[in-house]
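Summary for the steering committee. The consortium agreed at its last meeting that each partner would contribute one worked example illustrating the joint modelling workflow. Our contribution is presented below. We chose a case with several input lines so that the handling of multiple components could be demonstrated. No manual editing was applied between input and output; the record is shown as generated.
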Amino acid sequence: MPQQPKYQRRKEDRPQEIADAAFEAFAENGYAATRIDDVARRAGISKGLTYLYYKTKEELFKAVVKNVVIRRVDALIVDVETSALSSEEFIRGPLLDFMKKVPGSPVAIVIRLLISEGPRHPDLVEYYYENVVARGLGAIRGFLERGVERGEFRREALELQPHQFLAPMMLSMIWRLIFTDKPLDTDNLMETQLDMLLTHLRA
Amino acid sequence: MPQQPKYQRRKEDRPQEIADAAFEAFAENGYAATRIDDVARRAGISKGLTYLYYKTKEELFKAVVKNVVIRRVDALIVDVETSALSSEEFIRGPLLDFMKKVPGSPVAIVIRLLISEGPRHPDLVEYYYENVVARGLGAIRGFLERGVERGEFRREALELQPHQFLAPMMLSMIWRLIFTDKPLDTDNLMETQLDMLLTHLRA
DNA sequence: TATTACTGACTAACAAGTCAGCAATATCGC
DNA sequence: GCGATATTGCTGACTTGTTAGTCAGTAATA
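What follows is the complete predicted structure of the assembly.
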């Protein structure tokens, strides 16, 4: 009777599997309320093994945030940077799509974690700022400059803060995080914002 | 030798003092990381006394949120509802002031607590929604209707979501919660938003 | 003298982090 | 190939530290 082995050794895959499990757990319960034991069970391993790959709970937390940031956000930003559309087409196309996607994506979970745990992990906040926020804002700023050079936007566009584009996205995200079930027409919010911005910027 | 008494009995004031101390502690460390012992020390009492007035940590938490909500937000909303200015004056005056105040007010702390602890306290979220959000949005909606009746806004103003006004305020708030030290010209953000909205709404 | 707001030491429970031993695989000798 | 042996990924019971919540006793007021 060929016994099923109790476990398989999978040194290579464990870190990623643990990080994925931890992300799920943190997303559901937050950092403080998540037990390492939970994470381990989700990953189908014992608690002890978690500590072989991540020395502390905090280290695991940071790995999770960076993991999500790198794997998911990166693609979105690159997508925004490489485009040959006119400014208006770009805003109503890829940019709008991007904004619609974010509030329901893992990025929202990371934001929640940063809001609640950020103050105790300043280096993580710094990392997030440099790798996501600064790059994202930079991309939009570059886009505005290109629009002015092409004569699609008036000069004053250069003074606009990129944040102005993202405000309704932010509100939608927070709304979903707090009032999960209360409806909100977020698409309309974002579209209206972009309409107003186009009117405001057009040459 | 008339000894200073070790403590005074102040049944009436304790609950409020404890709630105030708890608010400070939660603001600094979040709900999970705050020890009841901390709260008690801040309030200048023993840990045991806290439990005389609040049966559990959770009950104290809810009391704190409701306390802040009732004491501070209420005044702001009423302020917005009673005004005899023209719509534009109102937007550029009281409404803008309100928006500028919120991100640095205790409301921001409550938002942080709701984002991180909300999912585990649905009744608290519901309470906040009804007493703050619904009323706030209602006030803005009423204001838009009045503007249309007076002929200051075009008919389509009625379709605008009140959230559109608040989006930059929300972004500013979250920005401050996460990136405390990174600068952001939030006044400009809000003013630009109101400019654009006025252009968009004007008859 | 009676009442009760208040103290602070205590308990109970839970969760992070450790580690001795086990069992799955890699390696070696034949 | 194949069994013996070495290596190490992995387990799970254990220790340790922390904190929510209790309660017998004390001292301030009525």
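Chain A has a mean pLDDT of 91. Residues 6-11, 14, 45-49, 52 of chain A lie near DNA strand D (CB under 10 Å from a C1').
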